[in-house]
Specification:
The chain has 194 residues and is an alpha/beta fold. It has 6 helices and 6 strands, in the order βααβαβαβααββ.
Length: 194
């Protein structure tokens, strides 16, 4: 049986607006982030998209976004949290380790500084989202999470060159997937806001 996952990135935060690295640390949504999340909620209403269940990261920016998108009950899951960037948390984004285009991420660059490896985050995201989708009564699901961890999840299912060509994951972007036989198929990105 084919199921559907709507995987959404949280709304813009103060750290996003200031160009600061934001992983397991948190900052509140900006007025733009709040308005954008409400627009996504209106998009779902206008298109009669209803969810059996909703989930978010335990981080406030994700749960706050979900609460602006829908008023249905939801579950917060630690497995959906953002990549831990170690001592780089809260610092200017120009301090980020250099991106390696061959692997499509910074790999283990954060590990020596108390952060997570890309592989560990990817494995965690695949595991938790597969678990969510395999729950008996989950057919059409909304999950609100974080840009880097969503990107690593997506990279597990489609080639990097396709991500670069076809996926723009801004704040409040929604990635739509089909799920069947423990595999996710990326369908499209819904960008309701600029």
């Amino acid at each position: 049986m084919v199921k559907t996952l709507y995987l959404m990135r949280h709304g813009q935060t103060q750290f996003n607006a200031l160009g600061k690295i934001q992983g397991v640390c948190d900052s509140p949504l900006t007025s733009k982030g709040i308005a954008d999340a409400k627009r996504v909620g209106q998009y779902f209403k206008d298109n009669q998209i209803e969810f059996d269940h909703a989930y978010s990261s335990t981080q406030e920016r994700a749960s706050d976004t979900l609460e602006l998108v829908t008023n249905q009950p939801y579950q917060r899951l630690k497995g959906l949290k953002e990549w831990n960037f170690g001592v780089f948390e809260g610092e200017n984004q120009r301090l980020n380790p250099k991106y390696d285009p061959k692997i499509g991420s910074v790999g283990d660059a954060f590990v020596p500084y108390g952060g997570d490896s890309a592989d560990a985050v990817q494995a965690r995201m695949v595991r938790v989202l597969t678990d969510i989708m395999n729950r008996k009564d989950n057919q059409k699901i909304l999950v609100v999470g974080h840009g880097a961890s969503i990107y690593l999840f997506l990279k597990n299912w489609i080639p990097l060159k396709e991500i670069v060509k076809h996926v723009e994951m801004k704040n409040c972007s929604v990635l739509k997937f089909e799920f069947e036989n423990n595999e996710f198929k990326y369908l499209k990105t819904i960008n309701v806001v600029n």
